[in-house]
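Q: I'm teaching a short session on how sequence maps to structure, and I want students to see two examples side by side rather than one. Could you give me a first protein with its sequence written out and its structure tokens following it? Keep the formatting plain so it prints cleanly on a handout.
A: Of course. Example one:
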Amino acid sequence: MNTLVRRVALTVAAIIDTPAAQAASGGPLAEGTGTLNPDDELLLQGLFVRIWRHLKVQSADDEPLTKATTPDKLLKQLDLAVSHHGVDADALLRLIDVYLEEAVRTRNPRYLQSLWGDTIISGLAGDMLASLTNTSMHTYEISPMATLIEQEMVQTMAHIAGFDAGEGVFTSGGSNGNLYGLLCARDWKLPGVQHDGLSGRTLVAFVSDESHYSVNMAINVLGIGLDHLIAIPCDADGKMDVAALSQEVDNQKRAGRMPFCVVATAGTTVRGAFDPLPEIAEVCAREYLWLHVDAAWGGAALLSPKHRSLLAGIELADSLCWDPHKLMGMPISCSVFLARKANTLAKACSHGDEANYLFHEENAGVDRGRISLQCGRRVDALKLWLAWKSLGHSGWQERVDRCMETAAELEAKVRSHARLVLMSERQFTNVCLRYEPADSDGVDLDALNSSIRERISTEGRLMVTKAVLGGQVIIRPVIANPDVDGAMLDELLTEIVRHGDELSGS
């Protein structure tokens, strides 16, 4: 055993040999048991130490969030090629060290770039447990408790959304959830489509022009055609224009096409806007259209009595997707598709009914693979269940409320700053802003704000993204971590203004 691995092993042994560790694990670890060879033991011991160390580094104040290493430079530093002969635990641990050093510290509150951040430790425990047990969600026989856990989580979230008689399944993400929604809508509109295909019929779906690109993906995969996804304009706040939707439905019917689905968004990617669900639902009921809601980002607002009004009318939808791996802090991926009526998924996924090598009649009512587009599928419900057990409903409420309060604080700071402009009314935890110098004549504000963002992210102290809104480049911080505080907001705005002043000569 080399010196490095020996130190790792001794460190882990010291950790797990404490009374607290033994109590947590159910007693002392037996020696000489299990099926691990010595090299695997050393690898796992080293990995456990690195997990602990990485979690501590994630929250450290004096470490950059990213090294911002270019692809070319990183490729020169690493030997990524695999070879005929394998390497030992020591070599693997060195590679793991490099991976962790280069990984973006998304759990740090200064990570304000994406619609997700933070990682709840109970959720992390569930994710690790899912990998440890290495089961699949297609049958109860091989995942008995996991099956019941997923059912419980689906029922819980369906009830929260007002789908008391509904059903659902965990998916690989909101993109896949939107695919489920359009699939169910297609099969509902054309009951024989699974066998007959579209048979020359031209289906048409509608979405806001600020929707997520995954709707385009779903339309493409289903063979409906991108030209048959109609983008409806939004109002000044980024919400779908319902009058324009109604008019476009009429236009498509007159053109001999068959409208079948509206995809509304509850929490758009850039603005965090919420489409007016009651009004859209009224159009869908009148025109015999399926209403699917992409609530991948905004679904978490349902957990807060104070903010669930953002999704008023969600109970009128036919289906929705919701990503707990976003504002709820679950390790990626953790996403749920919900349908308002029972047996919706069983009909849409009936293509698996003949797989008698997997599905048996004794578990026909519980096998999750019968209502899923995936056969092999991770036990993603486990991490959410453990986190929900840990936090309770009140914990989720506090998390959402805290993030909303912090976003409101950031909005107020932007409004009061002489050289910062709020580019859209805030609805959720997205804050759209940009820097404008005192004298902006002749200044390319799009290029300027792009450069500001690039500087901040390259320095690595903070991370924030940019987007295009109304044809203008904006900087968009997102509050997805409840540990973000006022000092961090001040630091972000100070850095934006500092770089803006330097670049513009103000």
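Q: Perfect. Now a second example for contrast.
A: Example two:
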Amino acid sequence: MDMYEYIRFSHFNLGHGIRKIHRLTGLDRKTIRKALDGVTPEYQLSKPREKTVIGPFIDQIRTWLLQDKKAPRKQRHTSVRIHNRLQDEFDYTGSLSTTTATVKELRIDLDVSRKEVFIPSDPEKREGAEMDWGELYIDLKGKRTRVYLFTIRSKFSGKVFARLYPAMIQPCFFDGHIRALAYFEGVFETIIYDNLKSAVKQVLKGRERIEQESFIQFRSHYNYQAQFCSICKGSEKGGVEGAVGYVRRNFLTPVPKVNSIEELNNYLLEKCLTHDLRITSGQLRTIGELFKEEKIKLLKLPRSVYRNYTLNSGVVDKYLTIRIKRNRYSVPAGYRNKSVSIELGLDDVRIIYGNKLIAHHKREFRADRWVVNPWHYLEALQRKPGAFQSSRILTEIEQSWDPVVKKVYDLQVKKYGQIEGTKEFISSLLCFKDRRYEDMIAVLELSLEQKTVTKETVAHIAETTNEDVINIEDALITKIAAIANFSIPEADVSRFDILMEISNG
């Protein structure tokens, strides 16, 4: 490598500035600028400065660096390590800066640079897309919460799709793809990945991988090929890693304050669409314009959307629950010790006995949680009312149901006592066992307004309502008021006095 090539290589490949090249070579700064501007070397290069202190040790340093070629990447010599070995083994007296400068030069000469060199790609040959996860925090309902950023980026146009998820599990991984491919309105022939567990079961030699069966099924549905990066070579999909950072810095900084992840995802979708208007470095057209050209080459979407559920099985325990990934989900009474099928979705859990759906829950991503439906336990608690106050069922009602339900419970316990009040309360709720939750809340609200909260009153109102409580609310209020204000009229005995007078006359 001659000096002209060295200057340009140092600057454009290693990122060295003019000042640094001047210090390493001793060349005049004007000479360096000419070389960087592409001026042919019609100049005389100054003689490199003689390395007086470190000179006797250069051969030894060269030997160590050549040995590093066969060593694991993370166990190769740093400049500091070489400096320390020279001091310990050879009584070297030079400075660390001198050692560092010499090591850098030797690495270039020996082609053993520790810094990864990125090979420029031809935009016309960039095909397919890249996928990656990123981690960040949001303030969700006032609580600092960790979420995960799913990103797919087109290699040719740079068009980006981004969406947040509560976890990096396979249903979220699949859902991100389903939404992204719908967003791109087509399927890329190849998508590049890290060796993530949602896709890869085992890493083999080279680029060979044993893929997860569920992932093979998924990508077969969309008819695309997967390509995986070499181990510890995430730079092979540097475009999408850059996109993850761009989205995090430009769309999600400062820390967003939201009431739901879905709210933030709608915002991200708008930002991704706006991103199409950008012109990236080295391009003359916008991302959106480039994608119009790229879209023609995409594969068609399949006629049906992939059914994004993971299948499992389990046995209902004595608590009427199924354990799924360190969490428990309830099922109705009568299924204890029964074997059931479990469908794990992106945000829900479906429990099936035979061909019948017996329970449907919102999926919980925190560990060691009980996800219970109070309806599954109310009939059993009617026989054991003493257990209700300390049960998870009351906790679930307080946390998940409308506050009106707890108000009814408190009023009935106050009126009838703990045990009988609990029985009264459970009997009131069981009137709505096969009704809509909204119906129950509407009726209980009406009962509280009219101060007629008894199981008989609630049952009567429930029986007189149709499927649409809202449409008959006014009629109900009139009827409840009539019941509440009803009183037996006093007898008019004067009429009997008149009859007696007539009789005596």
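Q: What should students look for in example two?
A: Point them to this: The longest strand covers residues 129-140. Also worth mentioning: The two ends are 145 Å apart (CA to CA).
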